[in-house]
Amino acid sequence: MRRLPVVCGALLLALALVPAAQTAQAAPRSDGSTPAPAQVTQLVTGVPASTLNQVGAGDSRNPITSQDFGISKRNGRLTSDGKPEVVVVALAWCPHCAANSWGLAVALSRFGTLTGLGAVNTGTYFCKVAEDPCNLNPLYCFPYTDGLSFLGASYSSPYISFASVVLQDVNGRNLQKPTRREERSLFTVHLAHTAPALDIGGAWGFNGSGYDPGTLAHKSWSQIAGSLANAHNRIAREVDGLANLWTAAICTVTKGRPGTVCRSRGVQAAAAAVLRKLPSGPPPGPPS
Amino acid sequence: MIRAAASARRTALAVAFFCAVLSGSASAAGAAPAPRDALQLAVREVRALSPQASAALAQGTAASLWINARVADAPPYGRSVFTASGHAVGDLTGLSALGARTAAEQILAADRALAEDAIAQARGASAARLAGARQAVSTGNRQARAGHLSAAVDSYAEAWQSAYAALAQLVAGKVTRVPSGALEAAAEQALSTTRFGMAGPVIQQPSNPLIAGGKPEVFYAGSEACPFCGVQRWGMIIALSQFGTFSDLHLMQSIFTNRPQVRTFTFFGSSYRSAYISFVPVEVWSNVPKPPGLARLQTLTRGESTLLHTFDPSVETPFIDIANRFIVDRSTVDPQLIAHKSWTQLADGLTDPGNLSTQAIAGEAEVMTAEVCEATGGSPQSICSSAIVQQYEAALPNLTGRGGSCPAPPSPGGPGAPPARDAAASPHARAARPDPVATAAHCGV
Asked: Taking the domains of chain A in order of start, what are their residue ranges?
């Protein structure tokens, strides 16, 4: 797996841009998120297949060449309830995790039903921990990025199981830990001690952000969700492109099921752009 | 009529407040809380009475404004403590509740203690300056007795600022005139051991020299907030003082969130004259947090930025280019070596070659002196031909210690190599610090 430091993109968002009105009515959950508005859930989980086909690999980062998004291919096997398990590890304050959350929700929705999603705003905690007073570059820390939280969400699918681990809440307080089984698998796909991380059935590991969180600057949950069906929209090209890549990776562990999804043009395009280009020999990037 | 009566009542209350302050401080002088603690007590006291006063005081007690509970940041940043106090007593003056009275006592006592402590720290400084500071404290006491509480706070602030000006002059005087015998002895000790892990410069081929005003240029890019710049400035000032004269050096401390916090100087607002070299310092960041980062102090010119990116693409500080002959991209020694010491402790220690901080600073100073002597072609001879400088010139290529510098930028979201490991793998390995802030930034599981 490629292990290179990320360069965060700059976003200096005004406090006034936090869409407080959307969070005010719902009680916060333990990671600082609130239940996602029904319309947001509906838009994210119902991105038209035609849009996804049109986007293909889209404009998301290619993990083979990107310094900020990594991929690892392994021969591990992570299952739950007799099905391949997808595990996401995130921090509620991490804007990179927020960026990835949109693509993951879209991808999971192609294999089953996702309910109880949360809406999370990453706030400024990352800006505090990312500060390097000795570095002369401006601090790029994507404050107040809107994302989705899988904490407490339910997922049902005949093909895969899904587990979410939210390590810390929006203020950096410890919240959840992966199980020993999940941790072993995360280690296998080189995802130990990193976030955001996505383990797909012990066969694929992804870490880093699939696109620049700056894309979501000044955008509310509704605006982000509302853009996903437009294949020409910048956010859709990044989120849907990432969703197609992850869908393609999930298809490899579901053995191509469901065929309508796994054989779709968008998923095939993403697989061709990334998964099939990976060396077939020894997996890249042994851990050091 | 009613307004006049109310005004008289406020004045009477204020007078009563200050009498209580004086009698209270006299009777319980030994147990007086540290100034920041006193202000924090006042915050709690007035929370219900005056949200405005409470909010103002909360700003004044922010961790970013204090070195410790007894010492506020040096001017100009520490001045915000008094500004907050002034706002708070202004809000409290019209209130008659006992809590308001207690809080006002605590605020005035805290501000007066800050001023008196600064005067005590500056003992030995210019008598005239210190007399001015003491005079301002007396004025503040009189104003408080007369019920002019905001004016009293202003006077204590003036006293504190005058005392710091005296302290800066005193400390700068000691640093720019270190006895050569003590400096050489300490530098010899530093060179004879590996305990300091001194980092040498990256040595460039002597082509395309950096020149300004017809003299070799020493270019420095730094950040007031950075502890590595903080330790480096001590050695730089000693070294450069051998080639010229500094004026208007101000005291400064690195930012509290990045340990170790070190007390140092800033080059911002200072000037330097030399017959041998041109010194161009740029302090890019202040040590004042301004979300999402730090407040900017100075901006690099396009040429300076090109220089920096050419020699140090990671743009970590301190960055020092000595006439394009030597590039320094980290501090020569670890800032831990001067941590937890006041300006006067560090400055007074410079006459003691057995002092570890002194040895570290002397080592830094002689490394830079040797580099500058190479750049000037050995001028002035009185400095460059000394045995210790010759020794350091010969040692420059062999200084392979880690020195100190910030770890690589954090990479949450990135493919996650811990910066410490990356740094260790790089050809110019930097000293990574086990810092909880940095650890959190790596999105550690």
From this structure: 15-45+70-232
